[in-house]
Each structure stands twice: as structure tokens, then as C-alpha cells.
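Hi, here's the filled form for the chain we discussed.

Project: internal
Contact: R.S.
Residues: 101
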Amino acid sequence: MFPIMRFKVEDRSMEPAIRAGDYVVVNRLVYALRNPSKGDIIVLRHPKEKKKFLIKRISVVTNSNEYYVVGDNKDFSQDSRHFGPIKQSSIIGKVWFHVKS
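And the returned structure, exactly as it came back:
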């Protein structure tokens, strides 16, 4: 497993901070050292379409280690409002930085 991955953003769900066409660099090891936190921007596997990846912000962390995730651009985001909370096992990693296209 490579500790760093790169993903191309394909939708508008995180605008204006991260736009379609931008690239994000994801740290896959950070959550081996600590738990995800509210406010973290993450890449996760789509809960219903396992081959699809999403980029979202953690909005709520529950006591049972479930995470509610949302897109900053709520009008164009498919997130926990649609599919509910996610488990930590769905998280690929934390966005370390992004490169604008």
C-alpha cells in the first residue's frame, strides 16, 4: 500500500475551495496514527458504488466512530444527507494538499 495517493476531482461538491479538475494528494497513513476529526477533508469510497471515490468534509463524529460527511457546495453534493454516516473503513485518507488546475 502506497502511503500517498493522488486523485483528480471530478465534481463540484467541494467548491469553491476545491474545484472540478483540481488534484488532491491524500495521506493514507494519517488515520493509523489518530482518528479522523471534525473538519478533516477526506477521500472515501462511495458507500453504494464501491468503485467510485468521493471527497468530503467530516461534519460530525459520533460516539460509535461513525462519520457524517458533507460537501462544501451542498447544492451539488451527494453526501451523508443521502447515504447516512460512514465507517472509518470507508475512508481512503486525509487530503494533505491540492493542486489547482
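Let me know if anything looks off before we file it.
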